[in-house]
Amino acid sequence: MASLALALGGLAIGTGEFASMSILPVVAGDLHASLPDMGHMISAYALGVVVGAPLITIFLARMPRRAMLILLMTLYAAGNLLSAAAPGYGTLLLARFIAGIPHGAYFGVAALVAAAMATPDKRGQAVSRVLLGLTIANIFGVPLATWLSQGFGWRSTFLVVGVLGTITALMVRRYVPFIAAGDASPRRELGVFRRLQVWLTLLMVSVGFGGLFAVYTYVTPTLLEVTKVSPALVPVLLAMMGVGMTVGNLIGGWFADRSRLWTIFGALVWNVLALTAFYFTSSNLWAVALNLFAIGCGIAVAPAVQTRLMDVAGDAQTVTAALNHSAFNLANAAGAWCGGMAIAHGAGLQSTGPVGALLAVGGIVVLGVSVLLERRGGGNRLAPAAA
């Protein structure tokens, strides 16, 4: 039940994060804003994650893990309820920023709790179970939220997410065991910023996985205007991407326990191919459905990156685990911005695929630099991962 409680938090956060992208056209229409302007709603949330993850984990380093998880989910629920009640564009941006603050810290702490309850050779799979809620959100949560926004308005989406966050906080209180912070301290956690491999891993994520978000941010208008599907089919196609994410996450956890870096490299190459294909498949219903599944599978990188950061973080585990999700949300912001720029300059909605592929290539370059420097330092992380 502890794993279920942690995964439910992932479901709430995943639904809120990814549904914000799928309902962009509805929000833009209601607030009389353009799609690129409403893309700032995504960036505001991502900025909240980037700012909140290190600050919370550093200054609350001594807080017991269960208490921190309850606090984080309560704040997340409040941010989404405020989003549902936001009267205008500016207030909505502020509410999304607040909702993003606990995101990275929650996943970071939850991953550490899950890893602590697993044997060393099963850490990748334990982390993947925490992230399972995040990927399942794209099968059920996001399609449901998209359907709700079409029938009852976009505010109903954030209301449901706020309720999910509240339920998660109650379940964590009931089922997650007490876990002390150990010898963690703000000074110890700040030591992570002196570790080059941590910075390179975070940079690789921020650049390399912006491509997924470049496509996802604008996938709903692409399906409506390029693929020309009916609005009723959009949730089904989004669920295809969610199925891919779930499959990729489970497979990625298994591979991460065998080789962290080969898993990351393989996921990046997969993303280059799948995102490039989006340009050619977006005009055909069946082709784009399969392509969205393939793009979703690229999330296989998540357990490998999370456990690699645990390997290179030394004694600054908490802040490093949270910074991983800051990096993913920098990727979110960068992908949304790059995709929006391509669309604004007339390249077409389907151009988000090649833009994303270029970002994935950038991630491969950063990964290569990281491995080269690590090997020169005497470490060989390309070998099968050990405990």
Describe the structure.
The chain is mainly alpha-helical. Helices cover 80% and strands 0% of the residues. The chain contains 18 helices and no strands. It has helices at 2-22, 24-31, 35-59, 65-85, 89-100, 103-116, 123-152, 155-175, 186-190, 196-208, 210-217, 219-227, 234-256, 260-281, 285-297, 301-312, 317-344, 352-376. The longest helix is centred in the middle third of the chain and has 30 residues, at 123-152. Residues 378-387 have low confidence and may be disordered.
The percent range for strand residues is: under 5%
What is the distance, rounded to the nearest whole angstrom, between the alpha carbons of the first and last residues? 26 Å
User: Whole-number average pLDDT?
Assistant: 83
H and E string: HHHHHHHHHHHHHHHHHH
Number of helices: 18
| Main beta sheet | none
Helix content: over 70%
Uncertain spans, ≥5 residues at pLDDT below 50? 378-387
Structural class by secondary-structure content? mainly alpha
Number of strands: 0
Gyration radius, in Å: 19 Å
CA-based shape: globular
